[in-house]
Specification:
Order of helices and strands: HHHH
Strand content: under 5%
Number of domains: 1
Shape: elongated
Largest sheet: none
Number of helices: 4
Distance between the termini: 26 Å
Structural class: mainly alpha
Radius of gyration: 19 Å
Number of strands: 0
């Protein structure tokens, strides 16, 4: 049992030193997973505009929205994950990875 706890603590300490990169990867994965749904919602809202105006607006909104999500959501996830102790951070990251 001590071997498992030691392994969890070691992996959690390593993960804690790379938490900003892990959080950025999580936000990127969420954007990939839910990007089509968000894009569809935005397209439904912009559906009444002319095509010449709709395409640049869509590109601009996707660019700004994705960039803002990567910039502003990453620190929130870092703060949330840093609340876990060294015995629970690695299992939480493993569950998030599987989900």
């Amino acid at each position: 049992m001590d071997l498992i706890l030691d392994l969890l603590a070691t992996v959690s300490r390593w993960s804690r030193s790379n938490l900003s990169e892990i959080s950025l990867a999580l936000v990127g994965c969420l954007l990939v997973l839910f990007g089509a749904d968000i894009k569809g919602w935005v397209e439904a809202r912009l559906g009444g505009l002319a095509g010449a105006l709709r395409v640049p607006m869509m590109a601009l909104l996707c660019m700004i929205g994705s960039g803002a999500a990567l910039i502003y959501a990453t620190p929130w996830i870092v703060r949330g994950l840093s609340q876990f102790n060294n015995y629970s951070l690695a299992p939480v990251l493993l569950v998030v990875l599987v989900l």
